[in-house]
Amino acid sequence: MVEVQRFLGLTNYFRKFIKDYASKAKPLSDLLRTSSKFDFNEKCINAFKNLKEELIFPVLRLYNPQFKTELHTDASNLALAGILLQKQNTNYWAPIARQRIKLK
């Protein structure tokens, strides 16, 4: 169950890049309900695979020095991560670069 929570935490951070995130994550979110039996079934496997694909889908944009830019970082004892975002003309924050480094 902890692994599902961690995965949903990661995908939730990037939910603004995943269209219909809530419906795509629902089978996994339902696993975390205390009233439900933990059953990692075919729907959960598909939801996991689909969300994983959404995260690694190559949607990186070219850097534009005229656009507003933000750098988001995350760190733990196990890894460091960061993503460079730029606000597009459509008010959409597009990823420009991503980096993950495993520490151990």
From TrEMBL:
EC primary class: transferase
Domain of life according to the entry: Eukaryota
Residues in Reverse transcriptase/retrotransposon-derived protein RNase H-like domain copies: 40-97
Entry's EC annotation: 2.7.7.49
MF terms (GO), sorted A to Z: RNA-directed DNA polymerase activity
SUPFAM superfamilies named in the record: DNA/RNA polymerases
InterPro entries the record matches: DNA/RNA_pol_sf, Rev_trsase/Diguanyl_cyclase, RT_RNaseH_2, Viral_Replic_Matur_Polypro
PANTHER family given in the database record: POL PROTEIN, RIBONUCLEASE H
Protein name: RNA-directed DNA polymerase
